[in-house]
Specification:
Layout: H1 27-42, E1 46-52, E2 55-62, E3 69-73, H2 84-88, E4 95-99, H3 119-133, E5 139-144, H4 146-154, E6 164-170, H5 175-187, H6 191-203, H7 205-210, H8 215-221, H9 223-236, H10 248-268, E7 280-285, E8 306-311, H11 317-320, H12 322-338, H13 353-356, E9 360-364, H14 369-380, E10 384-389, H15 392-405, E11 410-414, H16 420-433, E12 439-442, E13 448-449, H17 457-485, E14 489-494, H18 507-527, E15 532-539, H19 546-549, E16 551-552, H20 557-574, H21 578-591, E17 595-598, H22 600-611, H23 613-620
Parallel strand pairs: 3-4, 3-5, 5-6, 6-7, 7-8, 9-10, 9-12, 10-11, 12-14, 13-16, 14-15, 15-17
Antiparallel strand pairs: 1-2, 2-4
Length: 626
């Protein structure tokens, strides 16, 4: 993200820390920030300063103030810029507010630092900001890391009642809930509870280090502060943008008092009345290096209205998965504003909800058959779905039904996958409007049967354009976006049992599918180091509409119509539904499988191709039953 795209355009370069009592516009610090303010204004960001408890808080606002207010609180050692990518995705629907916590970013620090970062004072800051930006309506609170820790305080104390409409928490537990969690496991130890305590203790080693006098401040203002941006980008696979900002060493040195002022007192004497008085959405990154998922096992007792979501991500999800977080936040906020869940007819269900919930899945050939079934399966698992097909009406119907099934959002796009420039425009549009695709399913295909010598060059071009080039375009364009994001993903290419079982009647079709299979194998090897899986799905005879549109080379129109009807009847007698292929697709992504034959005949042909190639060739010479 370039400087001009930041929430405030950048943090000030201070000649010295601006302490309490100083005017926000005074001295060299303001001069250093004038360019930031100018860039913020040009980007449509409204900046203000809010006085609270002897400090000046830098507050940034985006979007229409008449819309619901979503207020973001950052963690340690961050500034409000950690939320900039998420905020940008929400400004067209909400009044978005971000502020630098006291002592961070462009907000001033308390004097003295000791005792200046207690949860009580942080609550005062929040109330001051909320009253300034949304005096007449409660705000929807979103917190990450220490922003979430302090937000748990906000939603569980009586004096904030009526000022908060909802709370989305990620990577930061309530210190009161954590205190009870520790006491219960230490007081009634079992092997499982002991393992949980030891596991979280190992993750929290840095907390002890931050309680060490003076040394953490020296480290942050010295070598650690200089190396941290490179370290966090490498560990989190974070895009190489302008985050963290230049105020990091000072922010981190001030922020150690968040730990020193609060951790020991609250863990020793956790409150017993720490029940949330608002609906809470808990988003748990499954690969968080600092917090165990087990910390939230008992959360239902403290939160009467709780929505849980799991996100395959590391700790700094606001920087690495902003599109997914923005979708979940928007859905949760709108549900509270409407007074009921926004996902209409059916909530996400099934065994894959935690794996795919909120992820962006693009399916080509989604107007019917296997493509539609795959789109529905991901919708049932809570994924956001983009249905792509050259049949625009069919794709739109798939998207409409996907929303009813459980997809939080579903869209349709009309594209011929064999058209390279059109696919490039699609990739740009999807990235700009919906985000980076997490799972790509290249499923679009056409059928072609008939003798090789009767197949024209134009027919060869048609089948290769759709069946092979459509896959190539999808892998190249969306695969590149996955690589550039740096957070992994998965590509599923629909091949066929015809990819490894030759047939005298399927020379063109079999060639296209064999190429898809080999492309998938090669791409899997190339992208493995990028945490991107590639799967080739190889169905056999599946009862779909492809039989009604298949072309038969060398046949007259009348004969082709007869062959289509006979083929459709045979496929119908086989009776293998596309929903079973869809199940295999989701299972393959979860297991990161390389090649997945679907149907008994596909598995049998795969077996013959490995151990009995002569038998396989004999089968290929057989006359097709048409």
């Amino acid at each position: 993200m370039k400087d001009d795209d930041r929430v405030t355009g950048g943090d000030r370069e201070a000649g010295g820390d601006r302490e309490a009592g100083g005017e926000p516009g005074r001295g060299g610090e303001r001069a250093g920030a004038e360019g930031s303010a100018d860039r913020a204004a040009s980007a449509g960001v409204r900046e203000r300063w809010v006085r609270a408890g002897g400090v000046d808080l830098c507050v940034a606002e985006l979007g229409d103030p008449a819309r619901p207010t979503v207020l973001f609180v950052h963690g340690y050692p961050d500034s409000k810029e950690v939320w900039s990518e998420v905020a940008r995705r929400l400004t067209d629907r909400f009044h978005v507010v971000l502020y630098d916590v006291r002592g961070h970013g462009r907000s001033t620090a308390p004097v003295p630092l000791r005792g200046g970062f207690t949860l009580e004072k942080l609550t005062d800051d929040f109330l001051a900001v909320a009253d300034a930006v949304s005096p007449d309506r409660p705000v929807h609170l979103v917190g990450h890391d220490w922003g979430s820790v302090q937000s748990w305080e906000f939603v569980t104390v009586a004096r904030t009642a009526g000022r908060i409409a909802s709370f989305t928490s990620m990577s930061g537990p309530s210190l009161d809930h954590l205190g009870h969690w520790i006491k219960e496991r230490a007081g009634r130890p079992t092997p499982r509870r002991a393992a949980q305590l030891l596991g979280q203790g190992a993750r929290s080693w840095y907390i002890c280090a931050l309680h060490t006098p003076v040394l953490p401040e020296l480290a942050w203002r010295g070598p650690l502060g200089r190396r941290w941006p490179t370290m966090v980008r490498r560990i989190e696979k974070m895009p190489g943008d302008s985050y963290p900002t230049s105020s990091l060493p000072r922010d981190a040195a001030h922020g150690v008092w968040l730990y020193r002022d609060n951790i020991r007192p609250r863990l020793r004497r956790p409150r017993t009345d720490a029940t949330a008085h608002v609906p809470v959405q808990l988003i748990t990154p499954t690969d968080d290096a600092f917090l165990s998922e087990r910390l939230y096992d008992d959360l239902d007792r403290w939160v009467p209205r709780l929505v849980r979501r799991s996100l395959p991500a590391k700790h700094w999800a606001p920087r690495t998965r902003p599109d997914q977080l923005a979708a979940w936040i928007a859905d949760f906020v709108l549900a509270q504003e409407d007074g009921e869940p926004r996902a209409a007819a059916s909530a996400p269900s099934g065994p894959y909800v935690e794996r795919f919930g909120g992820q962006l899945v693009l399916v080509t050939g989604a107007a019917g058959g296997i493509g539609r079934a795959v789109a529905f399966a991901f919708a049932e698992a809570g994924a956001r779905v983009v249905a792509v097909d050259r049949d625009g009406d069919g794709a739109a119907r798939t998207a409409e039904l996907a929303r009813l099934i459980g997809a939080p959002d579903a869209w349709s796009e009309t594209v011929d996958v064999g058209d390279g420039p059109a696919m490039e425009r699609l990739a740009e549009k999807v990235a700009a409007r919906y985000g980076t695709v997490d799972v790509l399913v290249n499923n679009a295909g056409i059928g072609l049967s008939g003798p090789f010598l009767d197949t024209t060059a134009e027919e060869w071009k048609d089948v290769l354009d759709t069946n092979l080039w459509g896959v190539i375009h999808g892998c190249r364009l969306f695969g590149r976006q996955m690589v550039e994001r740096g957070q992994g993903g998965h590509i599923v290419n629909t091949a066929s049992a015809a990819a490894y079982q030759p047939s005298r009647a399927l020379s063109a079709y079999g060639t296209s599918k064999a190429a898809v299979l080999m492309l998938s194998e090669c791409l899997r090897a190339e992208l493995a180091g990028k945490s991107i899986g590639v799967t080739a799905i190889c169905p056999g005879f599946v009862n779909t509409g492809i039989t009604s549109t298949a072309h038969f080379a060398g046949a007259s129109a009348e004969e082709e119509d007869r062959l289509r009807k006979k083929t459709a009847r045979l496929y119908g007698m086989r009776g293998y539904p596309p929903e079973k292929v869809a199940d295999a697709v989701l299972r393959a992504v979860v297991r990161n499988q390389a090649v997945v034959p679907v149907t008994a005949e596909a598995r049998g042909a795969r077996f013959l191709s490995r151990i009995a190639p002569r038998t396989r060739r004999a089968v290929a010479r057989m006359e097709p039953p048409l």
